[in-house]
Amino acid sequence: MIEITKAGYHGIQLPQFNIGFDYSGSRAEHVFISHAHADHMPRNRNVDVFCTENTYKLMQKRGYKGNATVLKFGETLELPTSKVTLYPAGHILGSAMVYVETDEGSVLYTGDYRTPPSPASEGFECPDSVDHFITEATFSLPIYRWAGHDELTDEVTGFAKHTLEEGYTPVFLAYNLGKAQEVMHMLSSLDHPIQIHGAGYKLCEVYEEAGIELGNYESYDRETCEGKILVTTNSALNNGFASNVKKKRLAYCSGWAARESSRTQLTVDKLIPLSDHLDFFELIELCKKLEPTRVHITHTPNANVVQHYLDELGIASRFLDLETETDD
Ligand SMILES: [Zn+2]
């Protein structure tokens, strides 16, 4: 029997095997970081971890000072009582799922993931069989079903083109790591100058080194931004980003844009439900394919809904409530 417990703010631990996932406390000797989003990076910026090279580079640009042992996808690390292999998670560049094989069975920790994968990532791949599947379920309600990549690309590029044609400056509201670069990748075919907020700009270099095309872009400059395609976050916009540009139109790019209520919470011209997580139906399909002994669900708006669907498939599951954990 493999024990899987919560550890720290967003972390998970396999105490028998001295392994932690997205954890930075002292209770696990081997800590694996799935990706460089703030809620998965080690809270202790000096702790030593294992991760992919691109996650390491992105974490360093976001203030991580510790030592990372870099693992390639598919490379197996032999630990005293387990073997660990990273699989590409398709969420953002560098994102990895952690597969642990032990005498007691196997565990796959997803971190955040997306299948089909983001084209601005290393793709998605998972092992053939898993005993314990620890999965995020951020969009695990049947109201979330994503459009295909081509359709979303058309929405993004179409919004930019029409806005520019009408003499307005298009502004894409997208999180500065992952979503921003995916939107830029989609826009690169337009060959129109792009300006991205400085917090996202410094991360673009890692994407370019990885061979992801981001188009003709530069860092945001208030004096020259008018008429360019702008990429920034909602909070930067509220803090004066491009406030001097009077004729602009806003597109909000997020899985949350699928909710009709987003319209009342945000004053934007266009909602584009572009997510870097998988949707509800993709999650259930993956569980069907993997046939795990048990699914451990994290980050969900309502665990009962996923559990109901998994019950119907005869797959055992439990809810691992990470947000309320404060013991570390
Ligand atoms: Zn993430």
Automatic annotation (TrEMBL):
The keyword tRNA-binding does not apply. Residues 6-162 form the Metallo-beta-lactamase domain. The keyword Hydrolase applies. It comes from the Bacteria. One of its GO terms (biological process) is double-strand break repair via nonhomologous end joining. InterPro entries: Metallo-B-lactamas (IPR001279), RibonucZ/Hydroxyglut_hydro (IPR036866). Keywords: Exonuclease, Hydrolase, Nuclease. This is Metallo-beta-lactamase domain-containing protein. It comes from Halalkalibaculum roseum.
